[in-house]
């Protein structure tokens, strides 16, 4: 729709005055361009006016910049949270693997000690794993994972790499019950490695010590003495560590000394044990020897079973002797 004359722009009006104004404006523009090119006046003017206009620009862009910064911060926080969570999970997994490796290393060390014990003592042993342990007030027992099907028998000693742990008291098809040396019902013959004193070490209700209640007062028993199996009784082989004396004092009656010792074996930390198949020889007097005498083939035959003696015929001139002829007085 064509514009009316009164609505047309005065700059581009079709009159002569409008044309002159256009030429004037172009001339001014040309002059300003030349001056700006040679002297840089307009650049200085723009630089000066930008000092005033720049804060306006910054103020106008604050909402968009704030929104962008908030979105970036939220995204970074979320990413950092996810990374932190992932790092925590990796750290927990690494710690679990490290603990597992340490446990395996400790287990290998214990197995190595058990094998070294077997080789050094040259014993016929059987390895077993502990599957249960009971440190109650009245019994100290341990369950192992071998039984009658594995050749285990009641009374066999059980040891670890440090000393005697106890003996088998009950055998099941696939497991066995072991009474520990600290059980109140357990007793083991021991010998003091320093003095050679022989006595008996009993279990106690304390659960972590042995009691030696019947030591003669004149005997030399000191703290730190090592207790070894004496071999008496034929149950435990001689020379295995049993414990170490920690306290010595008079008994309640005052007639004996009473000592307390800690077991040499790791009763509450051992996972693998050895079952001895080589039992000690019973100590005591030898069995009576069979009665000596001649062979049965040369022994005299009883009269009832002797064969009859054959009669020999006598000559006719033979006369039996009379008492007179033999010089025996007659009565």
Task: Report what the structure shows.
The protein is α+β, with helices and mostly antiparallel strands and 331 residues long. The chain contains two helices and twelve strands; from the N terminus they run H-H-E-E-E-E-E-E-E-E-E-E-E-E. A six-stranded antiparallel barrel has the order 1-2-5-4-3-12. A hairpin with a 5-residue loop joins strand 6 and strand 7.
CA-CA gap between termini: 203 Å
Helicity range of the residues?
Answer: 25-40%
User: What is the mean predicted local confidence, pLDDT?
Assistant: 77
The low-confidence parts are 322-331
For the CA atoms, what is the radius of gyration?
Answer: 57 Å
Task: Classify the beta-strand content into a percent band.
Answer: 15-25%
List the helices and strands and how they pair.
Blueprint: H1 16-39, H2 41-121, E1 125-135, E2 140-144, E3 157-159, E4 164-171, E5 176-180, E6 187-192, E7 198-203, E8 210-216, E9 226-229, E10 241-250, E11 256-263, E12 272-276
Antiparallel strand pairs: 1-2, 1-12, 2-5, 3-4, 3-12, 4-5, 6-7, 6-9, 7-8, 8-11, 9-10, 10-11
Brief synopsis:
The chain is α+β, with helices and mostly antiparallel strands and 331 residues long. The chain has helices spanning 16-39, 41-121, and strands spanning 125-135, 140-144, 157-159, 164-171, 176-180, 187-192, 198-203, 210-216, 226-229, 241-250, 256-263, 272-276.
Descriptive labels:
alpha+beta, 6-stranded antiparallel beta barrel, 331 residues, disordered C terminus, 32% helix, rod-shaped, single chain
